[in-house]
Design brief:
- The chain has helices at 31-44, 77-81, and strands at residues 4-14, 20-22, 26-28, 47-56, 61-62, 66-72.
- By secondary structure, the protein is of the alpha+beta class.
- The chain has one domain (4-57, 65-73).
- Strands 1, 2, 3, 4, 5 and 6 form a six-stranded antiparallel sheet that branches.
- Strand 1 (4-14) and strand 2 form a beta hairpin.
- It is globular.
Length: 84
């Protein structure tokens, strides 16, 4: 199977203890759509990030995520998403 790229918007919610935890991710057809949604998510959550990830789903092999844009308060998303 051919390599595909997924574009994702992921919100971060602040817990009662003050920690940031990931919310429900949404997948999009383009980087622009993921960025727009992440920006909207950040208004309702502590923050959000738009990222992409490419790979071959048939083999289960994916490259590290690429952060496209961050909004608001987000944890160390590089470590969370496996970005080097």
């Amino acid at each position: 199977m051919a390599e595909v790229t997924y574009y994702v918007a992921l919100p971060f919610i602040r817990t009662d203890d003050g920690d940031l935890v990931p919310g429900e991710a949404k997948e999009f057809q383009s980087a622009g759509a993921a960025v727009s949604e992440a920006q909207r998510m950040a208004f309702k959550a502590a923050g959000a990030v738009a990222f992409s990830r490419s790979g071959d789903p048939a083999l289960g092999e994916f490259q590290d995520a690429v952060v496209i844009q961050r909004f608001g308060d987000v944890p160390d998303v590089d470590a969370l998403l496996g970005v080097r």
